[in-house]
Design brief:
With 223 residues, the protein is α/β, with parallel strands linked by helices. The protein has a single domain, classed as P-loop containing nucleotide triphosphate hydrolases (Rossmann fold, 3-Layer(aba) Sandwich), CATH 3.40.50.300. 47% of the residues lie in helices and 16% in strands. The strands form two sheets. It has a five-stranded parallel sheet with strand order 2-3-1-4-8, sandwiched between helices. β5 and β6 form a beta hairpin. The longest helix is centred in the last third of the chain and has 21 residues. It is globular.
């Protein structure tokens, strides 16, 4: 039986990571594959590839498509070697048409992966800006709060360990709009490579997490 591969496509702040984590918690052998987590794992492994990624990120440069593809393939092989999987949910990969082409070739290999299908988290730019610009994070633990929908009990302080909450530099409105534009410019190319608009399933991400979860479940059932 092949392993399903679902690309969760959406702008930063669309909630795809939150939903992927929830699905992984509910479904045995459903695995969230986050690009950021893969980079961190490759760096932690001490491999030559990981050291290369560390140097690139430390210099403030973007990791190239070629290196990103190498990290993805290296880490997925390791993940599948350690635990059984029924579904891989890709969160943050692919981010370009070139990466999408590489993903298709990788899935056509001998790991038992099915060809990727795409579910898009659709949301307006202004909503993303509002959502992310009100986000606060504990820099030590990664715990995330929101000034409106999920505020801490005490303003500016983490409920769990009392650490000061900060706003990430990339959660400033101007930066959020730049990130949204990057997604918008790359989105069509990714969709075209992975089957086109007709095969695409869409989820309205401008809803409560529970409502998005219900709609996402229906989209997955329809694949």
């Amino acid at each position: 039986m092949s392993i399903g591969v679902i690309v969760l496509l959406g702008a930063p702040g669309s909630g795809k990571g939150t939903q992927a984590k929830a699905l992984a918690a509910k479904n045995n052998a459903w695995i969230q594959i986050s690009t950021g987590d893969l980079f961190r794992a490759e760096i932690a492994s001490g491999s030559a590839l990981g050291l290369s990624v560390k140097d690139i990120m430390a210099s403030g440069k973007l990791v190239s498509d070629d290196v990103t593809n190498q990290v993805f393939e290296s880490q997925v092989k390791q993940i599948l070697g350690k635990r059984p999987a029924k579904v891989l949910m890709l969160d943050g990969y692919p981010r370009t048409a070139s990466q999408a082409e590489s993903l298709k070739l990788f899935c056509a290999g001998n790991l038992g992966l099915s060809q990727p299908v795409v579910i898009e988290f659709h949301i307006d730019e202004d909503i993303v800006v509002k959502r992310l610009s009100d986000r606060l994070v504990n820099a030590k633990t990664g715990k995330i709060y929101h000034r409106v929908s999920n505020p801490p009990k005490k303003a500016g302080v983490c409920d769990e360990d009392g650490s000061a909450l900060i706003q990430r530099p990339d959660d400033q409105p101007e930066t959020i709009r730049k990130r949204f534009a990057i997604y918008r410019d790359s989105r069509d190319g990714i969709v075209q490579v992975l089957g086109g608009e007709k095969s695409l399933k869409k989820v309205n991400a401008d809803q409560s997490p529970d409502q998005v979860s219900i709609e996402l479940g229906r989209a997955i059932e329809a694949l």
